[in-house]
Design goal:
single chain; alpha/beta; TIM Barrel; 2 domains; eight-stranded parallel beta barrel; two-stranded parallel sheet; 14 helices; 12 strands; 43% helix; elongated; binds 3-methyl-2-oxobutanoic acid; binds zinc ion
Length: 388
C-alpha cells in the first residue's frame, strides 16, 4: 500500500528569507490559508523571535489555520523556544522546530564548541520544547556535511529527549543524491529509536540538486519533505514543492502519495510569485510559462499526433493554462496549420505549403510569430491566393 509523504511547506519561513520576498502579516496570513487549501500538512509560519512582525504573523496564522500543523522555528535557545511556543499558543496543532548546527564547520566556527557540548544543547532544546507541545521537530543544521556516526548519536539522543520529527538538512546543498540517500539510510540503520520519529528532508539547491536529494531521502526512509512554492529559499533556494509532489504522483511505482491538490499548483505558484515579487523562470518545471509549450517542428508534429509523445503531465492536472504550440522559425507546417485552424482558417496542404514560405520570412525576423501576424498572413492570402 502506498505510504504518505508529509509536505512541510516553508515558503513563509525559508522562502521569506530571500532578499526582496519579505511579507507583512496580512500577506503571510493569506498565503497560509491558501497553503492549507492546497493540502500541505505542515506550514512553517515563521521564526517568532526574529521580529515582532514575525511573531504576530505566526500568532495570526495559528489562530486562522484549521487543519494543518503550524510550525514556528527557533534556535536551541530557551528564550527562542518560549517565544515560539507563545506565538503558537492558539494553534490547533502546534509544532516547535528547534535545532543546532552539527557539522564541524558549525561546531568550531559558529559555536566555538565541542561535539559533546552541541549534543547536550540539542537534547536540552528538545526538552524545553517538549514542555510546550508533544510535536517537536529537531533540525541538525548542515547535516549534509556532518559525519554520519556523530549525526546518528545526536539524532538518537534528541529522539530519546522527545523529538517526534528529525530534520536532516543539507543546508549548503552540498550532497549528491546518492550521498544524501545513504545518509538517510545510515540513520535508519544506526539509530536504535528511529522508528519513534519521522525523518524529514530539508535540501537546498546550491548545486541544483535539492529536489533530487529530497526524493533520494524519501526512497531511503524519510517521510517528510520540507519545500517551498517555486523553490524559493536562501541563496539558490529549497526543494520545490510542485516538483516533489509531481514526481511522487508521476512515479506511483515508488509507492508514495501526498495530500496536495495538484490542480492548485499553478495558481498557487502565480500567487506566491506576485505577492513575493519574485517571477518564476519560464523553463521552471511544472509552473514555468514554458512548461507546456512546444516550439520545434519535430516536437509540435509529434505532440499534435499524440500529446503523450512530448508531455508526461496533463497541464490540467497541475492547473496550468494548457499546452501551447508556439510559432517560431523552428516550427513546422503542422503547427502552422493547427494555429490557423484555431483562428478559424481551414487550409489544405497546398495552401499551407504556400503560407509556410511567407510565415518563415516573418519568423526569421521575429522571436515568435503571433496571432496578429497569422491574421495578416491569412488576409493577404485571401485577397491574393498564389498557386504553388
Ligand atoms: O537550511 C537549514 O538548515 C534550515 C534549518 C533552520 C532547518 O533552514
Ligand atoms: Zn533551509
Amino acid at each position: 500500500m502506498a505510504q504518505q509523504v508529509h509536505i512541510f511547506d516553508t515558503t513563509l519561513r525559508d522562502g521569506e528569507q530571500v532578499p526582496g520576498c519579505k511579507l507583512n502579516t496580512k500577506e503571510k496570513l493569506e498565503l497560509a490559508l491558501q497553503l492549507e487549501a492546497l493540502g500541505v500538512d505542515i506550514i512553517e509560519a515563521g521564526f517568532p523571535i526574529s521580529s515582532p512582525g514575525d511573531f504576530e504573523s505566526v500568532e495570526q496564522i495559528s489562530k486562522a489555520v484549521k487543519y494543518a500543523t503550524v510550525c514556528g522555528l527557533s534556535r536551541a535557545v530557551q528564550k527562542d523556544i518560549e517565544t515560539a511556543a507563545q506565538a503558537l499558543k492558539y494553534a490547533k496543532r502546534p509544532r516547535i522546530h528547534t535545532g543546532i548546527g552539527t557539522s564541524d564547520y558549525h561546531i568550531r566556527s559558529k559555536f566555538n564548541a565541542t561535539r559533546e557540548e552541541i549534543l547536550q544543547r540539542a537534547v536540552q532544546a528538545v526538552k524545553w520544547a517538549r514542555n510546550f507541545t508533544d510535536d517537536v521537530e529537531f533540525y541538525a543544521e548542515d547535516a549534509g556535511r556532518t559525519e554520519n556516526a556523530y549525526l546518528a548519536t545526536v539524532i538518537e539522543a534528541v529522539i530519546k529527549a522527545g523529538a517526534t520529527v528529525v530534520n536532516i538538512p543539507d543546508t549548503t546543498g552540498y550532497c549528491l543524491p546518492h550521498q544524501y540517500g545513504e545518509k538517510i539510510a545510515y540513520l535508519k540503520n544506526h539509530v536504535s529509536n528511529i522508528d519513534r520519529a519521522i525523518i524529514s528532508c530539508h535540501c537546498h539547491n546550491d548545486l541544483g540538486l535539492a529536489t533530487a536529494n529530497a526524493i533520494a531521502g524519501v526512497i531511503n526512509g524519510a517521510r517528510q519533505i520540507e519545500c517551498t512554492i517555486n523553490g524559493l529559499g536562501e541563496r539558490a533556494g529549497n526543494t520545490s514543492l510542485e516538483e516533489v509532489v509531481m514526481i511522487l504522483q508521476q512515479h506511483k511505482d515508488l509507492g508514495f502519495y501526498t495530500q496536495v491538490h495538484t490542480q492548485q499548483l499553478n495558481p498557487m505558484s502565480r500567487e506566491v510569485a506576485e505577492v513575493m515579487r519574485m517571477p518564476v523562470q519560464p523553463n521552471k518545471a511544472i509552473v514555468g510559462s514554458n512548461a507546456f509549450s512546444h516550439s520545434s517542428g519535430i516536437h509540435q508534429d509529434g505532440f499534435l499526433k499524440d500529446a503523450q509523445t512530448y508531455e508526461i503531465i496533463n497541464p490540467e492536472e497541475v492547473g496550468a493554462e494548457g499546452s501551447k504550440i508556439v510559432l517560431t522559425a523552428r516550427s513546422g507546417r503542422s503547427a502552422l496549420a493547427y494555429r490557423f485552424q484555431k483562428l478559424g482558417y481551414q487550409y489544405n496542404r497546398n495552401d499551407i505549403d504556400i503560407l509556410y514560405q511567407a510565415f518563415l520570412k516573418i519568423a526569421d525576423k521575429k522571436k515568435e510569430v503571433e496571432e496578429s501576424d497569422l491574421q495578416v498572413l491569412a488576409q493577404a492570402y485571401q485577397s491574393e491566393p498564389v498557386t504553388a
